[in-house]
Amino acid sequence: MRVMGVDPGLTRCGVGVVEGVPGKRLHLVHVSVVRTAPDDDIALRLLGIETGIEALVDELRPDAVAVERVFSQHNVRTVMGTAQAAGVAILVAARRGLPVTLHTPSEAKAAVTGNGRADKAQVTRMVTRLLSLDAPPKPADAADALALAICHVWRGGAQQRLAHAQRSRIEEAARAERERLAARADATPTRGGTSE
């Protein structure tokens, strides 16, 4: 199974893809960070995140997407941006008929370190070790994205069977959305006249 983990953020959105099955060694497929400029308009930033994630999904073709579940933080502005970026990742996956699962930060930490309260350094060390990487993935958003992907692969079992069962529903909704957009494009009149 190939899983894309997304650690959402407006300035840095971590994306990590791993391949494997529960109980077997995992392999790194890709890790990167989609970046946007903090002084850009929010619409441009979300569009940039969408474009970056879309390109990676189309290139890497994951079987499932794991996104960090946004939790309440003290800074409402930060949580809003994180939630918006998470929504973009979920939408990109849904349009392609991919099952999406949300994992909390503590679930991902517990999956890779055995401790749901592990700090970022511990998570990065364990991700580096579990994937047999020569160097730790940087920045931390990249390591967190890989931890989400690892968490999703390892949770396996019933959760993956449920995702498989829901996949046909998601694929049908994605197909209907593509048809709706195509019909809308066909119905839009062409601007300007025709030259004779």
Describe the protein's architecture and organization.
It comes from Actinomadura soli. It is found in: Cytoplasm. Its main location: cytoplasm. The protein is of the alpha/beta class and 196 residues long. It has a five-stranded mixed sheet. The model has no long low-confidence stretch (mean pLDDT 90). Helix content is 54%, strand content 16%. The chain contains six helices and five strands; from the N terminus they run E-E-E-H-E-H-E-H-H-H-H. It is globular and about 55 Å long. 36% of the residues are buried. It has a single domain (2-187), classed as Ribonuclease H-like superfamily/Ribonuclease H (Nucleotidyltransferase, domain 5).
Explain the layout of strands and helices.
Elements: E1 2-7, E2 12-19, E3 27-35, H1 42-60, E4 64-68, H2 76-95, E5 100-103, H3 105-113, H4 120-130, H5 140-155, H6 157-187
Helix pairs in contact: 1-2, 3-5, 4-5
Which tags fit this structure?
alpha/beta; five-stranded mixed sheet; 5 strands; globular; Nucleotidyltransferase, domain 5
Strand content: 15-25%
Radius of gyration: 18 Å
- Secondary-structure-derived class: alpha/beta
**CATH H-level name... which superfamily?**
Ribonuclease H-like superfamily/Ribonuclease H
Mean pLDDT: 90
CATH architecture annotation name: 2-Layer Sandwich
Helicity range: 40-55%
**Major sheet: arrangement of strands:** 3-2-1-4-5
Biggest beta-sheet profile: 5 strands, mixed
Count of strand segments: 5
Count of helices? 6
